[in-house]
Structure formats: structure tokens, C-alpha cells
Amino acid sequence: MDWNENDISSEIHRYIKENPLRKKWRVSTNVEAHTSNENIPKEKGFADRYLRIDFRLTTFSKSEEYEYFFEAKNLKQNDSALKRRYINTGIDSFVSKKYENGSLVGYLLEGKTDGTIKGINSLLTKDKRSTETLNPISNKLLKSYYESTHSDIGTLKHLIFDFTKESN
Hints:
Blueprint: H1 5-18, H2 20-25, E1 27-34, E2 52-61, E3 64-76, H3 80-95, E4 102-110, H4 113-126, E5 135-137, E6 145-150, E7 154-162
Parallel strand pairs: 3-4, 4-7
Antiparallel strand pairs: 1-2, 2-3, 5-6, 6-7
């Protein structure tokens, strides 16, 4: 598979919307969500300058709305530029608090998950950020996911979706 990130995100969004459990759980989703109501002057094109994140999930409990965000990035085991982009426009967007209350999703298009994570960790170590490397975590819901620890934000969760066996 060699789809753009937005292509994959659009398909995942469609599957979430079609899932009957979504209504039972009262979860709403949208793609390319604005993450803040920044103080941008209201002139032609102002909305194009808002920060956007790939997914927003919301639910209501009584009168409170709860939001959770996901930023998605394509990954290939042997593509350092994509792994660097995962760090620079993914991890760093959460560390800088450009994005908050969310997780990163990696769309693995080629290679193996372990090798790709090893490559991301190698780049973080090269950047003298070895304390921020991705570590495997297992739980009942997911076979595995990854967490990284950052001094300014605490724990950041990383989900890697393996699309290497999918066909166009």
C-alpha cells in the first residue's frame, strides 16, 4: 500500500462511523479537526491558519464533552525521512504542546514494526533524546503499543497500524 496519510485516515474514519458500537458508546469522530480557537484575525483565509490534527474523537457525559486527538504519520522501515517526520511533526508537536490530549498513530506501509521503532529510537538517540525513546507496552485491549516519556508532557502513546499486507 502506498496511500497518503489522509487517504488512510479517511478510510479509518469511515470504518469508525460505520461501527454500530460507536453509537452505543456515544463516540463521534471527525478528521482534520481544528485543535484550538486561536486568536487569529478574522480576514479572508483565516481558517486555513488554524492548527489541525488528523482525528478527533468526542463523547458526552452529562453536560461535559470529552475530546481525544490522534496525529497520524506514514512510516516505512527503510525510510529515514518518514521516521524523521514522525519525530519532527508528530512527537515534537505533542512535546511542544502544539497538540495536546492525544496520541500518535503510525501507518506502517513497508517493513516490520520492530525495525521501524528501532529506527525511530536510533534517530531520537542520535538527537540526544534517548530518554524519549518508544518502549513496547502490552495490555488487554491491544496486543502491543508503545509509550515514550517526555519531561514536559509525561507519557505519549504510540499506535502502529501495520498496512504492509494490505493491497490497493
